[in-house]
Write a structure and sequence with these properties.
Blueprint lengths: L1 H8 L13 H23 L3 E7 L4 H7 L6 H5 L3 E7 L7 H8 L5 H4 L5 E3 L9 E3 L26 H8 L5 E5 L2 H8 L5 E5 L4 E2 L10 H14 L18 E3 L2 E3 L10 H5 L2 H17 L9 E7 L1 H9 L4 H24 L3 E6 L8 H6 L6 E2 L6 H12 L6 E3 L4 E5 L5 H17 L3 E5 L1 H6 L12 H6 L10 E5 L3 E2 L16 H4 E7 L9 H8 L25 H4 L1
Helix pairs in contact: 1-2, 5-8, 9-11, 11-13, 12-13
The protein binds zinc ion (ZN).
């Protein structure tokens, strides 16, 4: 009816209230025109560009806190469909697993991306740790010196599916982090760009010419990094500028980034700005949306996560950062508008996050604390080695919590006893909420209840891959920060608790609704026929998640 209605309002047809006489005379051309307009309107409304933006560590808490301050892109996206408290439902709330869910429709148990890093003791190389977006089959690859690849992603992304349905679709991915670009882009990308630590680079073996925008941004960033950068705090962020002491350093008050400080570039506004510049440049250079088939562009804005890790989530640094994200998203939307192609945007995050324990305590979260060193895998290993008179390491683990592996060298006759003893040692520790074994998780069905009702075991089940997960999976109690050495990072995420699981999910298509759209929208819900010629409004689809509430009305 929307199409029909448009037609009825068009001056060419010139009919709004047809008197009884002459109806038949007028109806014939209307029907003919309606049929051709129908297919036209349908194809025009179908997006030509699908854009997925992931803001790394943009928790539901941060979205709610900063919503009133957004004036640009994040303000405009809120005129679409907003789910302020969506879920990255799984337990291992890290960047790689989180990004692997966004465009695959699959949880880490299916994508195989159980963490940023895990152990694979079957590897012949000395380094048994695997990085999620490396290809460990390549000679010389290690978890720290790797060739970036989607090899370990077991699922297909939207881009993969679009490409196999129609090879004319272009799949473009740009992110600050390689793992964000890879996990959203997938196995069949036409263009992928991510920050290598020195410049924006693409995958080895991608032999297309470098787009002009990438060279331009790399040149500008190279110059910019060599200059000092004194952040100017936006006015609404000034009240948040309160120093917090963490060991021998202070966070909460933005400081100058020194000339040549590459690590500091990660937490500067220039980082996301550069990523955004490349995304916008590619929209223009590739003429996204103007090809034979719809295109998909994923954008990973990674700096929010570095700000969260380096300064925590509740200081003036995060305030300035999120206002920067707002601005960058606004620039992306403006570039999409300028294509004059129909587009759709989804914005979400790979995981949430929590503040550093020192400031959490100041804010009344009294159980906030740092992990006890006894829980570090090396220390647990030492205790078990002494108890069983075994060589170290007995246990392998990337972090105190999550996947813990029994070393391959431990002899078969003691393996189950060592694991039992390790489990018992974890369970008596006051910072441990639960310990799961692969057998326990394997027995559980994949969770099907709403994600807010999941047990701890359900959350770990959704992160469990029998090929890759640990021999023990250790869950921390809430508000335990698994960082002891605060020299680089002071805060993190990764827990199965809701502050790390909850993220905003925003869908947006350009478009405007009117009050006259209310009646047809409600009428369609109860399948009440309303002749389109009698009204001005059109049905709005309310079923963002499940279907088409206008389906009746469209038939
Ligand atoms: Zn992170």
């Amino acid at each position: 009816m929307a199409r029909f209605q448009m037609l009825m309002r068009s001056p060419a047809v010139g009919v709004t209230r047809s008197p009884a006489f002459g109806v038949l005379r007028m109806l014939f051309p209307v029907i003919v025109a309606a049929v051709s307009a129908a297919s036209e309107a349908q194809s025009a409304a179908r997006p030509r560009i699908i854009v997925a933006i992931s803001v790394d560590e943009f928790s539901a808490d941060l979205f709610t806190e900063y919503r009133p301050l957004f004036k640009a892109g994040l303000h405009r996206l809120q005129t679409g469909v907003v789910f302020p408290g969506g879920y990255q439902s799984h337990a291992a709330t890290e960047t790689c697993p989180g990004h692997s869910t966004i465009l695959t429709g699959s949880r880490p148990a299916r994508t195989g991306i159980i963490a940023n890093e895990w152990y694979d003791q079957s590897l012949s190389r000395a380094d048994k740790k695997v990085y999620c977006s490396e290809d460990p089959s390549l000679p010389g690859s290690s978890s720290t010196n790797f060739t970036v690849s989607a090899q370990l992603l077991k699922a297909q992304t939207l881009g993969d599916r679009m490409k196999s349905a129609n090879p004319g679709s272009r799949v473009v991915s740009v992110a600050g982090k390689d793992r964000a670009a890879i996990m959203m882009g997938g196995h069949a990308m036409d263009q992928v760009w991510f920050w290598s630590g020195k410049s924006f680079v693409t995958l080895k073996g991608m032999d297309q010419p470098t787009p002009a925008i990438v060279d331009k941004v790399n040149a500008a960033v190279a110059v910019g990094i060599m200059k000092p950068d004194l952040p100017v705090l936006p006015e609404p962020c000034r009240v948040r500028s309160v120093p917090v002491r963490v060991a021998d350093k202070t966070v909460g008050v933005p400081r100058e980034r020194k000339a040549g400080d590459f690590q500091g570039f990660h937490t500067s506004l220039a980082f996301d700005r550069a990523t955004t510049d490349i995304a916008i440049g590619l929209i223009r250079e590739l003429r996204l949306g103007a090809g034979k088939a719809p295109d998909v562009l994923s954008i990973g804005l990674s700096a929010t996560d570095y700000v969260g890790h380096t300064f925590g989530t509740e200081g003036a640094e995060m305030c300035a950062q999120l206002l920067g994200v707002d601005e960058n998203v606004g620039r992306i939307l403006a570039a999409l508008d300028a294509t004059h192609q129909p587009y759709v945007v989804v914005l979400t995050a790979d995981h949430g996050g929590q503040d550093l324990p020192e400031r959490n305590k100041m804010h009344g979260i009294l159980d906030a604390t740092r992990v006890d060193a006894a829980l570090l895998p090396a220390n647990m290993s030492k205790q078990l080695a002494a108890e069983f008179n075994l060589p170290e390491p007995v246990l392998l683990g990337v972090a105190p919590f999550g996947d813990i592996y029994l070393a391959r060298g431990i002899p078969g006759n003691v393996r189950s006893r060592v694991l039992e003893a390790a489990k018992a040692r974890y369970l008596v520790h006051p910072q441990v909420a639960a310990v799961f074994t692969p057998a326990e998780l394997r027995r559980l069905p994949l969770p099907s209840e709403p994600a807010d009702e999941w047990s701890l075991a359900d959350r770990f089940r959704a992160s469990f891959d029998p090929e890759r997960s640990g021999d023990l999976i250790v869950a921390p109690k809430p508000h335990i920060t698994p960082i002891i050495d605060v020299s680089t990072y002071v805060a993190t995420h990764g827990s199965p608790w809701n502050y790390d699981r909850k993220v905003p999910i925003l869908f947006y298509r350009p478009g405007v609704v009117e009050t006259v759209d209310i009646l047809p929208t409600l009428a369609a819900l109860i399948e009440l026929p309303v002749p389109s010629a009698e009204i001005d409004g059109r049905c709005i689809n309310l079923d963002a998640a499940t279907g088409d509430s206008c389906a009746f009305e469209r038939h």
